[in-house]
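The authors assume throughout that readers already know how a fold can be written as discrete tokens. The format is easy to grasp once an entry is in front of the reader. For illustration, here is how one protein appears when written out as sequence plus structure tokens:
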Amino acid sequence: MASVEETKKFSFVAFVINLIIPMGVGALGSFLTQESVKTWYVTLNKPSFTPPNWAFPTVWTTLFVLMGIASYLVWQKRKQVEHLPRVAAIYAIQLLLNLMWSFFFFYSKQIDAAFYEILALLAMIAVNGYVFYKIDKTAGLLFIPYFLWVSYATVLTFTIMRLN
């Protein structure tokens, strides 16, 4: 079992790597969306509660940073985690689902597929947050804003699907 000091020691390199992983997913998602945001998305009927376009990168950058911090906190306790490969797989699947929403909604323009996919994403965020919480309470709590935003995005996706 790792000592308390061993799990609390800060590793700059590990911290940066843990930030780069979700930020990389975000960058790839942004790449998939950028053209459609300017051309296709502006033509869609959207509900009155749709945030302005500038809000999306601001919120998502914040959420990806929080994910990176959460994963770093779990990484710090990796020697105490009984099923680390399972925890890493849950995190990876959640990140992949995050990316897939951008693919379905913006790149493929399949709003219905994006809606069903975001339901799976929301479930995986809940699972990921719970699993992280069991390892490190702060890591799990850092997933709450992500869960709330994707809950909102789920309603938004559903409404856009219905309006178009």
Summary: The mean pLDDT is 95. Residues 52 and 75 are 35 Å apart (CA to CA).
